[in-house]
Amino acid sequence: MVNTSLILHWHLDVSTLLLAAIFIAFFYSVTRFKRQRNNKLFAGVIILLLLLLSSPLHYLAMHAYFSAHMIIHVILLLICGPLLTLSLAGTDHPLLNRLSRFFNKNIWCAWITGVGIMWIWHIPALFDMAMANHGSFAPVFPLLQSGSLLLAGVVFSWPLLGPEEKLHTHALSGIVYLFTACVSCSLLGLLITFAPQGTYHYYHMGGSGYNPWNISHIEDSEAAGLIMWVPCCFVYLSGCLWLLYRWFISGSGVKLNNVR
Amino acid sequence: MSEETDLNVPEPTQSIPGLGVSNNQGLLQWISSVDHKQIGIMYLWLSLLFLVIGGIEIMLVRTQLAVPNNDFLGPEAYNQLFTMHGTTMIFFVLTPAIFGFATYFVPLMIGANDMAFPRLNALSFWMTFFGGFLLYFSFLAGGAPDAGWFNYAPLNQYNYSSSPGINYYCSGLLLSGIGTVTASVNFIVTILKYRVNDMGLKQMPLFVWMILINSFLVLAAFPSLNAALVMVLLDRQLHAHFFNAVGGGSAILWQHLFWLFGHPEVYILILPIFGIFSEIFPVFSRKPIFGYGFVVGSGIAIALLAFGVWVHHMFATGLGNTVNNFFAASSLLIGVPTGVKIFNWLATMWGGSIKFSVAMLFGIAFLVEFTIGGLSGVSFAIVPIDWQLTDTYYVVAHLHYVFIGGSLFGLLSGLFYWFPKMSGRVLDERSGRWFFWLFVVGFNTTFLVQHALGAMGMARRVYTYPDLPGWGILNFISTAGGFLMAIAVGLLIYILVRAVRSGSKAENDPWDANTLEWTTTSPPNLKNFEQVIPVKSTRPFRDYKRPDDADWNRKEEYGK
Ligand SMILES: [Cu+2]
């Protein structure tokens, strides 16, 4: 009975709009909306972003469940981020070219950004601080959190999907890149799954006291860790297989059955 | 490569003397060798030696279990024997046999004259060798390890196992584990850096591909085991508390560390086998492999998935429904890439002109047995079934279908396929067939009934059992099957020894095969190749033999 009203919990707040505006402004400044396909993809991502951050899922994440929070993190980092990068495909802009060259040479920077930001936001003290701040009129921390996760997703996917195809990393090193990220992600998930009760204070104290499905704290935080551990790994794994597929069909006349 | 030496190691300068020691330097020439072919052969002999030892151990165990309430073995001896059997078979039979074939054939298949680091190669072998003997020294030092091959805490703690056995388990496996890791580093560098010039990664033989993937898997999985072994040693010797709950440690931690290694280890023992069969099916079906890319891709998928499922070994430890459900779901997925491979091989055989050599017979038997093992494995991904069947003989049956019906069948297939190349002698196909049928019948007699025993609730690792309806007769059948397998292994050793002593000379290319190792002499000279034929497809030697029908200028594509 609570669940029917949950569906109606849509809240679009200022920080979300601000985040979208920043991304739109940046996208316009580098692409000038020149390519139809890129524009469509970009619009799609922004709509997904707005929906995600105003949805009942987000409401649950903010008020009730760590696991819902984690689903949002994963979508921002592993789906929205890479799609944003893809929406820049083929764009020729000095800043983007510089970035492509930089990440081609220093691929570890992209790796550290992608993985590091995820880790940093799950340091318990920082996490609780971000959550404590969400009720205020101009919630800075949630904005920072969503924005930086999104940015981390963009940067992380840059060496694989960036605008300049020639500067993509080799498919097979891409597999190592994704695999190591997956391991570090699993490790974080593992720590959260088996963390002692109360590590994440905000949810342990019952969030805003809202618990529509009567999920216990321990189950909730286990599920949060497991979402980061298991399904996340499958996203990375799918990425690996996609890279492998691209590698096999690439090159002069090499077919899947491997005749050169 | 081994010419540029500054140490005076007695190395052979003429030809490799086949499998014997009858040459001017005798045994010393083997012990001091850094040649990949000799090291590979030594790995294989080591594996055979331990196969016999591990086999004798399990025959004692099966004798004890032949009838209910038997007192042929006491519980202490029984615990030591099944622990040593499992540990031996996994770490000192399957692993060295796989590494033996890889050490011997990876350089030959990529047109290299040796491994990247020949001395490291020798180190890897000798670490494994001494690791094995250190483990067995425990019998003399006051008792072998007795906590099962996965050595669970708290059984591995001093209070529960005060004999020094577990210390030997830790140090023996640590030594051989270091050997395994160094060998893998060597494979990776060799494969990535020493391929003959025009062999791209997409022309690489699938066996080499699987060894490459496998080596990464080893590098990712073994540190966890090695660390855990050191932690147990610290607990036992210096009274640390890693796994001691009373001192603030956690017994479950051991299971996490062990299975973080242990589940990938299962794949470490099967991926190279997939590679061997991906060589054998095309050769004996006279067709190229169906879906080369899919075989590579599913291999990589298997390797990556290996690290996301280990908790399925721990469903019964009380981690809770949330944790169990996630890992049940991910574990169901791991059947997919393996299934893909099975269809690759079936499609390779489809419409081919199949030659039923012993190697191929083992391949076909593998498809059946491994599928049984795979299906019983998938059944464990369903948590309630796991709770019902865990630690029963159903698990024993499952893991033997995977390790024997999968890994060992693959190694035997590889043995019959590659023996002529390694020794210059032919393995007798007629007695080979006898061996095949004896072994397959013995294997199924032993383990098929154990599914039933497990479902009836017979717990594994208990030294005897009450005379419940059906238990006695099923166990007796299982023991009889075990003896059939023992006879088969005896026959195999006879076949091998006879072939080495007086087998007829093998041709360089007895199977009309596809890959580079068959272009050189049987056995190869110290320097594998003076020249390597051009590599333009995955079947370079076939292209060379049949230029008009070469893969690389074929119009139509296979498998479409
Ligand atoms: Cu497993």
From TrEMBL, chain A:
It is found in: Cell membrane. The chain crosses the membrane at residues 6-29, 41-60, 66-86, 107-127, 139-162, 174-195, 226-245. Keywords: Cell membrane, Membrane, Transmembrane, Transmembrane helix. It is a multi-pass membrane protein. The keyword Mitochondrion does not apply. InterPro entries: Caa3_assmbl_CtaG-rel (IPR019108). It comes from the Bacteria. Its main location: membrane. The keyword Transmembrane helix applies. GO terms for cellular component: plasma membrane. It comes from Mucilaginibacter segetis. This is Cytochrome c oxidase assembly protein.
TrEMBL record, chain B:
GO terms for biological process: aerobic respiration; electron transport coupled proton transport; respiratory electron transport chain. Pathway: Energy metabolism; oxidative phosphorylation. The chain crosses the membrane at residues 41-61, 81-110, 122-141, 166-194, 206-234, 254-277, 289-311, 326-346, 358-383, 395-419, 431-453, 473-497. Residues 24-537 form the Cytochrome oxidase subunit I profile domain. Keywords: Cell membrane, Copper, Electron transport, Heme, Iron, Membrane, Metal-binding, Respiratory chain, Translocase, Transmembrane, Transmembrane helix, Transport. It holds the Pfam family COX1. Its EC number is 7.1.1.9. It catalyses: 4 Fe(II)-[cytochrome c] + O2 + 8 H(+)(in) = 4 Fe(III)-[cytochrome c] + 2 H2O + 4 H(+)(out). Residues 540-560 are annotated as: Disordered. PROSITE patterns: COX1 (PS50855), COX1_CUB (PS00077). GO terms for cellular component: plasma membrane. It is found in: Cell membrane; Membrane. One of its GO terms (molecular function) is metal ion binding. It is a multi-pass membrane protein. Belongs to the heme-copper respiratory oxidase family. Cytochrome c oxidase is the component of the respiratory chain that catalyzes the reduction of oxygen to water. Subunits 1-3 form the functional core of the enzyme complex. CO I is the catalytic subunit of the enzyme. Electrons originating in cytochrome c are transferred via the copper A center of subunit 2 and heme A of subunit 1 to the bimetallic center formed by heme A3 and copper B. PANTHER family: CYTOCHROME C OXIDASE SUBUNIT 1. This is Cytochrome c oxidase subunit 1. The gene is ctaD.
